[in-house]
Amino acid sequence: MVRAIRAVKDTEPGMAVMTENCLCGHTDTGECHLTVGARIDLETTAALTATQAVIQAGAGADIVGLAAMTRGTTRAVRQALDEAGHRDVATMPHLIFDSALYEGYRTTMRAVPAPAARRPFRISPRSPETAVDTGLAFLDEGADMLLLEPGMLSVDVLASLRVRTAAPLMPFSVSGEYTRLASPRPTRPPDGGTSTRSRNCSPCSNGPERTGSSPTRQWAGPPPGCPPRPGPAGGLPPARPASPARSPGRRAGPPPAARRPRR
Fold it and tell me: Looking at the predicted structure, is the pLDDT value of residue 120 above 80?
């Protein structure tokens, strides 16, 4: 990932780079956290995740996305980034619902976790209040924004969070949503109207944005005729300002100022 970040920044310095910040690629079971025997080691998980975030930021990442869903990790990452001089790099913890919609990507990438792995911290689709509480807790730890996945199935949580915080909220329409919506052979009506693929995928972007989200991240890309909402850094939400003074979390108030591209 470090090589990829540097390649992007060398080619297009003004392009914002968002990463996934997780340990799942380094554990035998594919879990996002470390264990000692049967016990989940939250302290070591947070420390190593923070180290990984600093490495990504040093390579040029603008936003690091914390995917482990473990309490305390966001605070550890924010502190490590600040101490390393990366105060302008934003943190974006993920709110992940338990779902089979991620499995297609994992199978393709040969990254299917061992049975029951990764699930202790996933949120049950029947507990939207847990997702809201978890998101607010991440903001209190110093998160700048939140990513919600699967995007189309978390709109109710997004709406609940929007009335509680001014932080950017980014739905992620995952691979399983895309494969179920995209026609195997996208067709266009004879009259030149909107293609089947566009008509199916547009709600993935429009629906969450109507509830107050930042631009949706999705595998389909911006549907034809439905470009992403304009914003700084190529459509990404404003990130945190390069300022040494900051209070953790943002429950209300305007989003932070846009960050200048790295050069």
Answer: no
